[in-house]
Amino acid sequence: MLQTSHKMMATAIVLLLMALTACGGSAPTRFYLLTPLDVAGHEAQAAGAMAPRASIGIGPVAFPAYLDRQQIMTRVSDNELHLAGFDEWAEPLKDNFTRVLVENLSHLLPADSFAIFPFRGPEKVDWQVAVDVIRLDGALGGDALLLVRWTIYKKEDSGILLTKKSRFSQPAAGSEYGALAEAHSRVIEALSREMAAAIQVLALDRGNP
User: Fold this and answer.
1) Which terminus of the chain has a lower count of CB atoms within 10 Å, N or C?
2) What is the C-alpha R_g of the chain?
3) If DSSP states are collapsed to H, E and C, what string results for the chain?
């Protein structure tokens, strides 16, 4: 009986050591962020004479439920998605997307200020841009894809000035998650430029923010 007990204890110790070794040898979790466009500091200044200045509100921004998770989601096929094991967004993707979109537009438009929905405080919002993200994903070593429906309102009377469904894709520069995150940033830049151009045209047509 004593010998059996010693064997059981030895087996337990071996199993514990194996578990500890496996934990110690697991891959570290890596975290990623979307980033705004760069070297665009002069774009808003150049556009300053093109349209009246205004206060622009971004939101609400809606995201599909499958993106409401920390792990990065990639697409294997039209009907299959893959959830990364050790590669995660550093913050909720919806929040990161919204902040990058606002920062991009602040470079591209001569606006007096920008606000994120829900709008608070006494400052008036002249333009409101609501965004409904339908798809934001991609394949490792492939393309990042953004499919989005967006609407521009004149906040004063809640009238719809423009509604549009847009699709953007950008190739990833490598097969790593970091390259895919960078491609995600570029599709958001493309959306930002399309939105900024539309707001400029509307402002010029109406002659007032």
Assistant:
1) N
2) 24
3) CHHHHHHHHHHHHHHHHHHHHHHHCCCCCEEECCCCCCCCCCHHHHHCCCCCCCEEEEEEEECCHHHCCCEEEEEEECCEEEEEEEEEECCCHHHHHHHHHHHHHHHHCCCCEEEECCCCCCCCCCEEEEEEEEEEEECCCCEEEEEEEEEEEECCCCEEEEEEEEEEEEECCCCCHHHHHHHHHHHHHHHHHHHHHHHHHHHHHHCCC
Examine the pLDDT at 21 and tell me if it is beyond 60. no
Amino acid at 89: W
Between helices 177-206 and 93-108, what is the axis angle to 10°? 50
The 10s digit of each residue's pLDDT in 94-133 is 999 999 999 999 999 887 788 888 888 766 788 899 999 9
Which residue in 96, 73, 67 sits closest to 188, CA to CA? Answer: 96
* Closest listed residue to residue 209, CA positions, set 98, 113, 106: 113
Q: Tell me the fold of 31-206.
A: Rossmann fold (3.40.50)
For the chain, what are the domain ranges?
Answer: 31-206
Integer Cα distance of 161 and 23 in angstroms: 56
